[in-house]
Specification:
Helix content: 10-25%
Number of domains: 2
Strand content: 15-25%
CATH class of the largest domain: Alpha Beta
Radius of gyration: 21 Å
CATH architecture of the largest domain: 2-Layer Sandwich
Order of helices and strands: EEEHEEHHEEEHEEEHHEHH
Shape: globular
Structural class: alpha+beta
């Protein structure tokens, strides 16, 4: 439930805020799912002098609601990174919610989808809202999430380079050993401090639970990577992919990913894969009656002692890890 502060700012005691300028309490939280082609934007977040996807969504909502509406996202994406099913929440007053259909027979959720896409259509299809609905009690797009899943496409060898898919695929000149990359990926599964593979944010932990990390050769000859974790810190996915590719093409020896994880240092050996091939595929949430509890649990800072021990035993026991 959302409350009004003495300064007339909206705040949510269970998680993040969906600030706005409503003169009455915005009690109704809505969940919205959208996708975007990140190639033309400077990431998700609002930033000065550049365009982020958040800015486009919030400006579209402002045109519809007639006030500033802030959205809270499940996971911020970097410049050039895409999303298939990103999740956000926003808070509306009862009057704003009731007014979404205007004179149509649509329910408020579908009406919001139709109206906001009418505005976002100016982006030529690069940003599109798939669904919107009233969120269950306790829902927070960011803190209620159980996990996020990313994919990454690689065309290794110039004979696989296709100009028509270049904005969704990384081109790599040398052939990659998928089996070797999978062996490396398994060595970093589990709950660890991923400092080596992250660009730390102030006062933020780099402890994460990496639940899935694998590479598959697809029917069209490309390599498709999948990564799933409770959360990813800044640059983590691209750094892990980059490290695995260095083993896959022979630039680094087997054991490189695990040894770098153990070193816990971000230096010149940390190489980032190109952002254009990275897609946020899906965000996972618990059942409705567990959303509020999950938000509280996620907000509790991960501590140094709350990680898997290093070594082979940790690798074996982390196959079915959970937060």
């Amino acid at each position: 439930m959302v409350f009004m502060s003495a300064q007339s700012e909206l705040f949510d005691p269970m998680g993040t805020t969906a600030l706005g300028e409503a003169r009455t309490p915005a009690w109704i939280r809505m969940r919205m799912v959208l996708g975007y082609d990140g190639a033309a934007y400077n990431g998700w977040a609002r930033q000065p002098n550049v365009t982020g996807v958040q800015q486009l969504v919030e400006e579209a909502l402002e045109m519809l609601i007639r006030r500033r509406v802030r959205v809270v996202v499940a996971g911020r994406t970097d410049a050039g990174v895409h999303a298939r099913r990103q999740v956000v929440h926003l808070d509306l007053t009862q009057e704003e919610f009731d007014g979404l259909p205007r004179r149509s027979s649509l329910e408020p959720g579908p009406a919001l989808v139709r109206r906001i896409n009418g505005i976002l259509g100016r982006q030529d299809g690069a940003v599109w809202v798939h669904e919107a609905e009233v969120a269950p009690d306790g829902f927070d797009a960011r803190f209620s999430a159980l996990a996020r899943r990313y994919s990454y496409r690689i065309a290794d060898g110039i004979h696989r380079w296709d100009p028509l898919t270049r904005h969704l695929t990384t081109w790599h000149r040398e052939p990659l050993d998928v089996d070797a990359m999978n062996r490396e990926a398994r060595t970093v599964l589990g709950r660890h401090d991923f400092l080596t593979y992250c660009k730390p944010r102030p006062d933020a932990t780099t402890i994460r639970t990496l639940q899935e990390f694998s590479f598959t050769r697809t029917e069209d000859g490309l390599i498709l990577a999948h990564l799933k974790a409770d959360a990813f810190c800044h640059n983590m996915v691209r750094a892990l992919i980059g490290a695995a590719m260095m083993v896959g093409d022979g630039r680094e020896q087997p054991g490189f990913l695990a040894s770098r994880l153990e070193e816990m240092v971000r230096d010149s050996k940390t190489k980032l894969a190109h952002p254009r091939a990275l897609v946020l595929e899906e965000v996972y949430y618990p059942d409705a009656d567990q959303l509020a509890a999950r938000a509280l649990q996620t907000r509790a800072k991960r501590e140094e002692h709350d990680v898997d021990p290093r070594g082979a035993a940790a690798v074996q026991s982390s196959e079915n890890c959970a937060d």
